[in-house]
Design a protein that fits this description.
Layout lengths: L8 E5 L18 E5 L1 H6 L1 H12 L4 H13 L11 E4 L16 E7 L16 E4 L4 E7 L15
Antiparallel strand pairs: 1-2, 2-3, 3-4, 4-6, 5-6
Helix pairs in contact: 2-3
């Protein structure tokens, strides 16, 4: 482990961090290098830790989501902070069997909101969004370069 000085946390998420209905939820190949900014460290990372603790306790997917929802309802987990975001720029990611090495992208975590509010899904918009089951909306914005500086494939949505 290397301790940084800028408040970011970088880690590799596993497949169980995907939305509950994702077909790759249990995919053992799933690995998603992610770097969280300080706001996401304070408000998103605790959810990652909670979900991982439940998974390691060999509980079911249903139990994991129930435990996470209960912790949110009891305010044991923080609400998503304004400005919470992350970088996902690694070529070594394996996000799904459908598209293993998707595009490098930024993700913005917000309280539950309509994706169209940010232009997600609008004609010509590169923004993709999904409403999470944990009271948040996640916006994905593809970028043009991988973390090593090489050009990424052109994103077409």
């Amino acid at each position: 482990m290397v301790k940084g000085k800028n408040g970011f946390v970088c880690m590799v998420e596993r497949s169980w961090m995907a939305p509950v209905d994702d077909p790759d939820f249990w995919n053992p190949k799933g690995r998603a290098p992610i770097c969280l900014n300080p706001a996401a460290v304070r408000s998103y990372l605790p959810r990652t830790i909670k979900k991982t603790e439940v998974m390691l306790a060999t509980k079911s997917k249903v139990q994991m989501f129930a435990d996470t929802k209960a912790a949110l309802d009891k305010k044991e987990l923080p609400a998503i902070e304004s400005g919470a975001m992350c970088y996902m720029l690694s070529k070594q990611a394996y996000l799904s069997d459908r598209d293993p090495h998707w595009h490098p992208h930024l993700m913005f975590f917000t309280p539950l909101t309509e994706p169209g509010a940010w232009g997600a899904g609008s004609p010509g918009s590169p923004i993709i969004a999904f409403k999470g089951s944990e009271g948040m909306t996640v916006f994905l914005v593809p970028v043009t370069r991988w973390s090593d500086g090489t050009a990424a494939p052109v994103f077409e949505h």
